[in-house]
Design a protein that fits this description.
Aspartate Aminotransferase, domain 2; 7-stranded mixed sheet; 14 helices; 13% strand; globular
Length: 395
């Protein structure tokens, strides 16, 4: 029986007033880009910010600029060291740079770097190492920074999924030499589109200077606002089930997209992000509380991270039995869905990229076994818990 009700795997607060603010911004009202820059500067304690059309563009420009400031005589001066399992947009950004790519494996017990694999990659030479806060679970940034500094590599921090979260009292994206944010669909704060690069130290500022004039001036953003309106309309479990049941719509399907020329953020999305900023920080607190209530179901230990201020976007979970049992209708109805179905190493565009000598077994394990559960304010923790437990025990 087809039901319209289906829980959203991830939810970004969007109100009708956000759409109105975006429309007014697109029409020329106010100074939305400057207001957004001011919000970011206040939150992260830096005025070195560059706004662009998407988080993918922000990451691409950050990686390109970091490679450009690397000493040309250094080993691996044009090599990016990337995690082997994460959002496919990271591969899009890397392809856009034209740089060489080397992978490091992930530890399924933490969703952070496999430290031996990361150190081995750095020993072989790299201009840039990318740390990704997957689902908002913070990476040990002190250890990452120490290893990167020892190897002479610049540390770029991808917090596209970590808005509103903290590590050791510092906001995610505000720790690495360069930090990256995304304001796209399903992120912690959204305007329908947009992203930002943040410089947090002298090396980051040198890199940021390289990208100040690159993107062409953004448009008003009417198409982005139309997508934001669709996100607002479908952000209700009561009606999300219909488009989610239509395979050609592609909701929740993870795909690789080829790179495109980066642009400035459009006025409309910038205004919508400004309007959504406060409610998104409130939503971050809600997700933190729900993650704490469901922490015993998580695939990794998230208790310490949540107590430290981490704000998970989704809760990573793994089945206790066979993977096919997790196709149970109730789990899907409650928003429990597979995470990224392939490691980056298996993407066609990665065929020429370097893997560690021992391969990436951690990334392969996560691609096969990792699911995520919703913890946003429109989810019901008790229903999510029942769905997970029922699906894991189904015959």
């Amino acid at each position: 029986m087809l039901t319209l009700r289906r829980q959203l795997p991830v939810f970004s607060p969007v109100r009708f007033s956000s759409l109105l603010a975006g429309a007014l911004g697109a029409l020329g009202s106010g100074r939305p880009r400057e207001r957004l820059e001011a919000l970011i500067a206040e939150h992260f304690g830096t005025e070195d910010v560059r706004l662009v059309d998407s988080g993918t563009s922000a990451l691409r420009l950050a990686l390109e600029a970091a490679v450009e400031i690397a000493p040309a005589s250094a080993p691996g001066h044009d090599v990016l060291l990337l995690p082997a399992y994460c959002c496919y947009d990271i591969a899009t950004a890397a392809v856009g740079t034209g740089a060489r790519v080397r992978f490091y494996d992930l530890d399924p017990a933490t969703l952070g770097p496999d430290w031996a694999s990361l150190e081995a990659g750095l020993r072989e030479g790299a201009a840039v190492v990318l740390a990704v806060h997957l689902f908002g679970i913070p990476v040990d940034m002190a250890r990452c920074a120490r290893l990167a500094e020892t190897a002479g590599a610049l540390l770029v921090e991808d917090a596209a999924q970590g808005f509103g979260g903290y590590w050791a009292g510092l906001p995610l994206a505000g720790i690495g030499s360069l930090g990256v944010l995304s304001f796209g669909r399903g992120k912690g704060v959204t305007g329908g589109a947009g992203g930002a690069v943040i410089a947090n130290d002298a090396s980051g500022r040198r890199a940021l200077e390289r990208i100040q004039a690159r993107p062409a001036r953004g448009a008003r953003g009417w198409v982005d606002l139309a997508r934001l309106a669709a996100q607002w309309l479908l952000g209700r479990p009561s009606i999300y089930g219909l488009p989610a049941a239509l395979p050609w719509v592609g909701l929740g399907v993870t795909r690789y997209h080829p790179p495109w020329p980066p642009r400035d953020i459009a006025r409309g999305p910038a205004a919508a992000v400004v309007r959504n900023w406060r409610s998104s920080l409130d939503e971050a607190v809600e997700r933190r509380e729900r993650a704490a209530r469901l922490a015993d179901l998580a695939a990794v230990d998230v208790t310490g991270a949540v107590k430290g201020g981490a704000c998970l976007l989704r809760l990573p979970v793994t089945p206790s039995g066979k993977q096919d049992r997790w196709s149970a209708a109730r789990a899907m109805t409650e928003g429990v869905v597979p995470a990224y179905p392939e490691p980056l190493t298996d993407l066609a565009v990665a065929s020429g990229w370097e893997q560690p000598s021992g391969g990436c077994p951690g990334a392969a394990y996560l691609a096969e076994h990792l699911y995520t559960a919703p913890i946003h304010s429109r989810s019901r923790p008790e229903r999510v818990r029942c769905a997970i437990e029922d699906a894991a025990s189904a015959e």
